[in-house]
């Protein structure tokens, strides 16, 4: 047996070094704030990467999860549970008629979509987007249009064709009789917070393949409607959800439109922990909380945040919808993220020059003003550092 590695990349805390973690240990969260182990408070405009949509410790999913924990933790999918069936009904109503498969994450939801499309159409080909991101398991990674993430793990699942976002001509050329699935993010998240144009999505919906919209990051109210596709004028065959669905508890879902249903039968797919009663109970509370008032807050605060960002020095472009925004800056985005963290603001990157903001959907106007002040100072600090180095 080979001796254990002693390389510099070996984790010092017992965890595999799959993340470049910041030197910050988060121990508590409330609303739009988190606290580090040193007691310092941070304004969280990353929300656990667009996960904690209702804010940290929101009473509705907290109460629902706690009450369910006292009744039943797990039963397996060999039996029915009330929370799972209630959640499926709620999501079907929001979608306009759909059947749900529950799992634990976004990448698992994508895997289910890939299998479903192959079974339903008998065609293995997939059309996806350059710059798109759908997960890191082998199937989801195969449909991720980012070579740096794909190449270390080749060979991957064959038959995937990548086209540039918003290029209708390339989309039509790529889709032939071998393709059973078109897989799109309404807004490319990891790919730079790049929204798809209405005409492009409409063209994808007209083509002879199942259309799956990956709403892992855009769904559950993040863009100002429950599903982002509501703003695009299409109704997809398949939708994947995760992230904000459980407000921090692990849950994912594949939704299959009623008129596309019927391909899966018992034994075709499964998940031991999928549809966990505690996670589903919390998700029911989340879905109920995404009401008209909250969606209006997403649109209002998103517009205010976008306008404020566009006025900052060093900002080239602001793009996105609702409270999923990408800020193209004229300096390395990673440096801005570090500078903001030092100023007590947590934000994300989405590429070399894009700062990503995905705060809780419950943020207030005061939170927006506070974030803009800190972000302006963070960008300015990186500018001063660049001047000092030159």
Considering the chains and any ligands shown, give keywords for the structure.
390 residues; alpha/beta; 2 domains; 7-stranded mixed β-sheet; 19% strand
Task: Characterise this structure.
- It is a single chain.
- With 390 residues, the chain is an alpha/beta fold.
- The chain folds into two domains: 26-55 and 292-389, Alpha-Beta Complex (Aspartate Aminotransferase, domain 1), CATH 3.90.1150; 72-289, Aspartate Aminotransferase, domain 2, CATH 3.40.640.
- It has helices at residues 47-50, 59-69, 82-95, 106-121, 138-142, 147-150, 168-174, 198-206, 277-289, 292-310, 333-342, 365-389; strands at 26-30, 33-36, 41-44, 98-103, 125-129, 160-163, 179-184, 187-188, 194-195, 210-214, 238-241, 252-257, 315-321, 324-329, 345-346, 348-349, 354-357.
- The strands form four sheets. The chain has a seven-stranded mixed β-sheet, with helices on both faces. The protein has a four-stranded mixed β-sheet with strand order 1-2-3-15.
- A hairpin with a 4-residue loop joins strand 2 and strand 3 (41-44).
- Helix 11 crosses helix 12 (365-389).
- The longest helix has 25 residues, at 365-389.
- Mean pLDDT is 95; it is low at 3-9.
How many individual helices? 12
Tally of distinct domains: 2
**What is the CATH-assigned architecture of the largest domain?**
3-Layer(aba) Sandwich
- Pattern of helices and strands: EEEHHHEHEHHEHEEEHEEEHHEEHEEEH
Would you state the CATH class of the largest domain? Alpha Beta
Average of pLDDT: 95
If you consult CATH, what is the topology of the largest domain? Aspartate Aminotransferase, domain 2
Number of strands: 17
């Amino acid at each position: 047996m080979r001796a254990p590695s002693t390389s510099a990349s070996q984790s010092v805390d017992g965890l595999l070094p799959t993340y470049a973690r910041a030197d910050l240990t988060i121990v508590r969260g409330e609303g739009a704030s988190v606290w580090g182990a040193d007691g310092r408070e941070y304004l969280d405009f990353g929300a656990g990467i667009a996960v904690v949509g209702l804010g940290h410790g929101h009473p509705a999913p907290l109460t629902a999860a706690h009450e369910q924990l006292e009744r039943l933790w797990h039963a397996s999918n060999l039996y029915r549970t009330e929370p799972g069936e209630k959640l499926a009904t709620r999501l079907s109503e929001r979608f306009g008629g759909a059947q749900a498969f529950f799992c634990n994450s976004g990448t698992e939801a994508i895997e289910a979509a890939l299998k479903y499309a192959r079974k339903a159409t008998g065609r293995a080909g997939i059309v996806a987007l350059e710059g798109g991101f759908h997960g890191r398991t082998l199937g989801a990674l195969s449909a991720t249009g980012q070579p740096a993430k794909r190449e270390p793990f080749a060979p991957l699942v064959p038959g995937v064709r990548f086209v540039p976002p918003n290029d209708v001509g390339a989309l039509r050329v790529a889709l032939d009789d071998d393709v059973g699935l078109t897989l799109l993010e309404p807004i490319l998240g990891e790919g730079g917070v790049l929204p798809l144009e209405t005409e492009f999505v409409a063209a994808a919906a007209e083509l002879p393949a199942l259309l799956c919209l990956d709403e892992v990051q855009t769904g559950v109210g993040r863009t100002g409607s429950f599903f982002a596709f509501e703003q695009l004028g299409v109704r997809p065959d398949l939708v994947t959800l995760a992230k904000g669905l459980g407000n921090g508890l692990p849950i994912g879902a594949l939704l299959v439109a009623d008129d596309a249903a019927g391909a899966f039968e018992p034994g075709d797919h499964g998940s031991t922990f999928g549809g966990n009663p505690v996670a589903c109970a919390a998700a029911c509370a989340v879905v109920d909380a995404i009401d008209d008032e909250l969606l209006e807050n997403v649109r209002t605060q998103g517009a205010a945040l976008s306008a404020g960002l566009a006025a900052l020095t060093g900002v080239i472009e602001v793009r996105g919808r609702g409270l999923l925004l990408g800020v193209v800056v004229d300096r390395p985005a990673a440096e801005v993220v570090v500078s903001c963290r030092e100023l007590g603001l947590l934000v994300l990157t989405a590429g070399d020059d894009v700062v990503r903001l995905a705060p809780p959907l419950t943020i207030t106007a005061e939170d927006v003003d506070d974030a803009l002040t800190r972000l302006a100072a963070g960008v300015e600090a990186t500018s001063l550092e660049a001047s000092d180095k030159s």
